[in-house]
Design brief:
The protein is of the alpha/beta class and about 400 residues long. It is built from 15 helices and 15 strands. It has 2 domains: about 5-75 and about 375-405, Urease, subunit C, domain 1 (Roll); about 75-365, Metal-dependent hydrolases (TIM Barrel, Alpha-Beta Barrel). It is globular, with a radius of gyration of 21 Å. The longest helix has 18 residues, at about 195-210. Strands 6-7-8-9-10-11-12-13 form an 8-stranded parallel beta sheet. Helix 6 (about 195-210) links the parallel strand 8 (about 175-185) and strand 9. Helix 6 (about 195-210) packs parallel to helix 7. The relative contact order is 0.16. The structure holds N-(iminomethyl)-L-glutamic acid and fe (iii) ion.
């Protein structure tokens, strides 16, 4: 964003002091705001903000933008997406309507393996074209910081193809993107019945190749019933860490998997899904710097239980929410919808859900120093809403357009 002075901001919402990395427990209850405000952006970062009566005078090279009483809030952060995929899985959508479960579809060789087949026969350019359309949809819906995973390759070359597409997205869009290597999303078709050998491939060939091109910030594993065991996950995370990738993890979506514990053991930046957690996982997380991240869009789409976000907050833990945007379990990248599900289905207050979709989501991908709040020094990236509104309006009237412009 060029140097800009925003004036006449009706309400500036989502303010945090410098140095706050995440909000835990009761601290999630509040969203600070300032009415009749200005905000100055210099060098792409928030330089200052305050009451309109204190607006600074600026040189003529600074662009002045009159928000005429509208609300300005930080853009959403989405810390768990799979937006690089080829085609879609519409037939499985119908199969699910007709009664097949996600697990049954996977056991038949569909699901993630279906996406891997499609991706294999898709060129890198075509994949880039499809992914960039999805990224543009995310941006239009107010998300400017996002994590994107590989995991539909399941062969070394195809995993690299996906990660190179993510690198091109990073290069071509002025948003903040983190890349995650998820070679252990499913066992590749060629390795059916030879799961240990597939884990060898992930550790001995894929991770070194990904690291050699510096293609991933994080390493992820689908540690769940029917996918990867705790022991296999341990090996993969250990190898990833050795190659400089911090873990994230898919855990407890289909069963209480032990994935939270192994994630915390390797200081994962987040443990994701958590549809089936018990109190034990909460205790483990209390003594860690790992963010519990829940994906209500997957619960909605697959008819699974929702994560126990309210209990986590009551226990003094932080909670982040993300879209999980993917063609199999959550075909939506709309963080406003995620915020609404956080309120309607997980009984978070609008403030808690907002914090889960902004600052805590930023922390769940190591971006809390650049995104997730109105804070001096953070990267400029905002949603200007159509009018001043209580935050509760956003999840309450959850289908009514509320974004006037996404500014970045
Ligand atoms: O986060 N659970 C595993 N991975 C994705 C789904 C991927 C797919 O079905 O394509 C998820 O839900
Ligand atoms: Fe996922």
């Amino acid at each position: 964003m060029k140097d800009t002075l925003f004036v006449n901001i009706g309400r500036l919402a989502g303010i945090l002091p410098q140095g706050i990395r995440k909000l835990c427990g009761k601290d999630m209850d509040t969203v600070r705001s300032l009415d009749n405000a200005y905000l100055l952006v210099r060098g792409g970062k928030i330089a200052s903000f305050g009451k309109m009566e204190d607006v600074p005078s600026v040189s003529s090279d600074v662009f002045i933008e009159d928000l005429s009483g509208k609300m300005l809030m930080p853009a959403f952060c989405d810390a768990h997406t799979h937006i690089v995929y080829a085609g879609d899985r519409q037939q499985e959508f119908v199969d699910k309507i007709n009664g097949l479960s996600y697990e049954e579809i996977a056991k038949r060789g569909g699901g993630i393996l279906n996406s891997a087949d499609l991706l294999h026969s898709t060129s890198e350019d075509s994949l880039y074209g499809q992914a960039s359309q999805r990224l543009e949809e995310m941006i239009s819906k107010g998300t400017l910081t996002m994590e994107i995973k590989s995991g539909y390759g399941l062969r070394t070359e195809d995993e690299l193809k996906m990660l190179r597409v993510i690198r091109r997205l990073k290069e071509n869009y002025p948003v903040t993107i983190k890349a995650t290597f998820l070679g252990a999303h499913a066992v590749g078709r060629e390795y059916t019945g030879r799961q240990e050998e597939y884990v060898d491939l992930v550790c001995n060939e894929m991770i070194p190749a990904v690291a050699a091109e510096k293609l991933a910030d994080f390493v992820d594993v689908f540690c769940d019933e029917g996918f990867f065991t705790v022991e296999q996950t341990d090996r993969i995370l250990k190898t990833g860490v050795r190659y400089g990738m911090r873990p994230k993890i898919h855990a407890n979506e289909l069963a209480v998997s032990g994935g939270v514990q192994v994630g915390v053991k390797y200081n994962a930046v987040s443990v994701d899904h958590l549809e089936r957690t018990t109190d034990v996982e909460m205790e483990v997380l209390k003594n860690s710097d790992t963010m519990p991240l829940m994906l209500p869009g997957a619960s909605f789409f697959l008819g699974m239980p929702y994560g126990r976000a309210k209990d986590y907050v009551a226990a003094g833990l932080p909670v982040a929410l993300a879209s999980d945007c993917n063609p199999g379990s959550s075909p939506s990248c709309d963080m406003r919808f995620v915020m609404a599900l956080g309120c309607i289905k997980m009984r978070l207050t609008p403030e808690q859900s907002f914090n889960a979709c902004t600052i805590n989501a930023a922390c769940a991908m190591g971006c809390e120093d650049v995104a997730g709040s109105i804070t001096v020094g953070k990267k400029a990236g905002f949603i200007a809403t159509k009018k001043v509104m209580d935050l509760g309006f956003i999840p309450y009237f959850h289908q009514t357009p509320f974004i006037d412009r996404v500014l970045f």
